[in-house]
Amino acid sequence: MDGVIAFPAVETAQPADLPPPASRVPGDEATAHPTRGTPPETPSDMPTQSLWRFRRRDRRKFVDPRRSRSSWIRRIGILGSAFLLAAVAVFEMEQVLIVGGLTPIEIAVLVLFALNFGWIALAFTSAIAGYGVVMARRYRQKRTPPGPLGGRTAMLMPTYNEDPSRVFAAVEAMAVGLDELHQGPAFDWFILSDTTDPDVALAEEAALLALRGRLGDRARIYYRRRRKNVARKSGNVADFCTRWGAAYDHMLVLDADSLIAPETIVELARRMEEDPDAGLIQTIPALVNGTTIVARLQQFAGRVYGPVVGAGLAFWTGSEGNYWGHNAIIRTRAFMEAAGLPHLPGKPPFGGHILSHDFVEAALLRRAGWTVRIAEDLAGSYEESPPSLIDLAVRDRRWCQGNLQHTLVLPARGLHWVSRIHLLTGIGSYLASPLWLMLILAGLALSLQAHFIRPEYFTEEFQLFPTWPVIDAERALRLFGLTMVILFGPKLLGLISFLRTRDDRRKVGGFRTIASFVFEIIVSALIAPIMMLVHTGAILSILLGRDSGWKPQRRDDGGVPIKSLIVRHRWHFLIGVALLFAAWLDSLVLVAWMSPAILGLLLVVPVSGMTGSNTIGRFIRRIGLLRTPEEVDPPAVAIAAAAARPVYEQAVAEAPDLVAIARDENLRAVHLALTDAVPPRPRGKIDPLEAQAIAKIEEAGTIEEAVSFMTPAERAMVMATPTLLRRLSSIPA
Predict the structure, then answer these.
(1) CA distance 541 to 532
(2) What is the DSSP string of 496-551?
(3) Which pLDDT score, from 0 to 100, does residue 460 have?
(4) How are beta strands 278-283 and 328-331 bridged, if at all?
(5) Which stretches in the chain have pLDDT values below 50?
(6) This prediction's pTM
(7) How far apart are CA 344 and CA 330, in angstroms?
(8) How many Cβ atoms from other residues are within 10 Å of residue 670's Cβ?
(9) Computed over its alpha carbons, how large is the radius of gyration of the chain?
(10) 3-state secondary structure of 187
(11) Phi and psi of 260, rounded to 5°?
(12) What is the pLDDT of residue 540?
């Protein structure tokens, strides 16, 4: 049929072509047939939730109200203390500025100071409570888990163009650990791929076969790659729920860089079984495997300050905790009934599907009458961090857009007021940067006004003295000291808590920890103004209507060429020069006061390059700075994952390409068995990618030529569509 494009017929559930599995326990199909992709589906509905319609009488009642209701005393203590602290500071600032009357610029400074101080005051009072919780925990006895688990949990590993060797080595380490605890039968593993790169997709299949070969009967491993990434990660998990979720009591959602100790996985499942009101339990992941200064800086801060901050948050949020998108266990039925995400009105960046889905899903679960808790007492949950400031900026651009979308979610009906605080906190974490920048600029303007602008003696209202900005220097110095205490209080409490924990102190060393604490503060002070401008730029970009897109995150290499660093940071440097010049116009004293912000911007290129360098990061590690207990004594699950990774690197290196699969009948059969079912296509609705691929296949003289004609997106479509792959393989050699 030369010159005629015949669109492929609809196909469904290709894995059904395989022989039926042997009689085993439910869900054991992957073990019986190593090439099978997914288990039989259990279709179920996941209704989209309305943000504007909700009846309180439809909210489920707690089975155990005494256990599930949060403490008002805790909330009054934490929030009330933060409010009083902020009120005192704002009053003091007013007294600093009111000498001689408030000018418009002084009013702006006062308002901006109130917004910035209120933010850190809540973190301070929460950290005080967290310190008490962490210290009290040392005297609690650890419980001994009883017998096997009664429910079934799906372990979900969503992945998007990630290195398969990392993903599958982590799955092996966790699955083997569960088997050694004799809890393996309670868990099924799902690698939910949204990968769009055809080469990465084929590498995933090779790694999957290697994983199944190594594990044998020790775990049930399933794999599904979506043809289209509808709604990104939230859509990926929702697709699992509607197709297989009904077969599982719980699902534990991971990320591509997640690792959880098997004992922690079992404990999470046990807590879900013991608490009939629990909808979601979120762990607090510790950062591991950092090599660059940026990664190790976050790793150290999370390990030393994180327990106090996390315990404080869990202390006052209680049953209205939050969800951070991974390393959390969820009651599947509750999630499917209550957390179907709506599309926001309008176009991206504010409209469309919700990017930061986790906060909203937690709020919807709580609205429906399920508890959302933060398991701050559970260790053994790990993840990794971006290796450079540029990678941080790329990630934060996406997170910033997702959090600003929450402005449309805030007024939703029926949300618990603490859930709204979580949403506001996410928004505020990014708005804090432009607020800080405006406070710096307002303070600079105040100084320049006092230095250059002549006082106005003859105003409309008679007065003996001119309106001239005047401050109370003694009060200002006292207020500065208070602000520093509030700002660094959580870090100091975290440091004290860490040093008082004998095992941690013994592994890292008290002197090294203190030296790392000082180093972290210095480097963080240099990075802070850079990230202030990064976040401010992200907000401006979003307000201009630019969507973030969806880019895979770099995990290991943080190195960036010097030319790229100059291009990426040129505006940060120029703003630093402008601030230095403006401060110098007033006095060298003002330059000294503004030096923490100015210095980081003037040194932005070397700071960004050095903090993202693996070589410098390894040197910092050798001299013992930013060391954590997990670095000295790595957790068993991390050791197992690192030991297994070379096996998967080898499997990925030997993965067949599309040409080999199209030529070899056995390779093609294995690939088709792992290919996801193609959904029915409405008549007349033609997919342009499929049509393009068919045209190129028809025009090619050989398989190699056809593949060379195709774009990566077209190759990925051919791999995901059995009729197209068979048509490609039918080209004569």
Answers:
(1) 14
(2) HHHHT-HHHHHHH-HHHHHHHHHHHHHHHHHHHHHHHHHHHHHHHHHHTT------
(3) 54
(4) antiparallel
(5) 1-33, 457-458, 462-468
(6) 0.91
(7) 24
(8) 18
(9) 28
(10) strand
(11) -130, 130
(12) 95
